[in-house]
Specification:
Elements lengths: L2 H19 L12 E7 L4 E10 L2 E10 L2 H14 L4 H6 L2 H8 L8 H15 L4
Antiparallel strand pairs: 1-2, 2-3
This protein binds zinc ion (ZN).
Length: about 130
């Protein structure tokens, strides 16, 4: 790992920590049409994703709950990313889409932390809780 790469990594880590302390889209939403809870028993992350779907598109997305820095960063970025997207497109999203958002290498043991928001959001869109 050269110096520039190192700097990039710590910058991304800072971004993740920042989103943990000040997450985007955190808090309950009265206008929700879909909602699901996701639990990651490996880490203890316990989140609820709330979505407002209007005419097949996500108009607003929020999350609540408790989780580690990776889970919160991923939840923040996921809820931000899916605003305006069609339900079908979100259901097609996979792990690579989320890993690309975070732009940092995730240890395999922590992958569930990062993917929990996507899994929970897709669960909500399928009408599961
Ligand atoms: Zn976690």
């Amino acid at each position: 790992v050269d110096k520039a790469e190192n700097k990039n990594l710590s910058m991304y880590r800072e971004h993740i920590l920042e989103l943990w302390k000040h997450p985007e889209n955190y808090g309950a939403m009265a206008e929700r049409t879909h909602e699901a809870r996701g639990f990651n028993e490996l880490c203890g992350d316990d989140i609820v994703i709330q979505l407002q779907v209007v005419e097949g598109r996500v108009k607003n997305a929020r999350f609540t709950g408790t989780g580690c820095a990776l889970c919160f960063a991923s939840s923040s970025m996921f809820t931000e990313k899916i605003k305006g997207l069609g339900v079908e497109d979100i259901l097609k999203m996979g792990s690579q889409d989320i890993l690309r958002l975070l732009e940092v290498d995730i240890h395999p043991a922590r992958i569930k932390c990062v993917l929990l928001p996507l899994e929970t959001g897709q669960k909500a869109l399928k009408g599961q809780r």
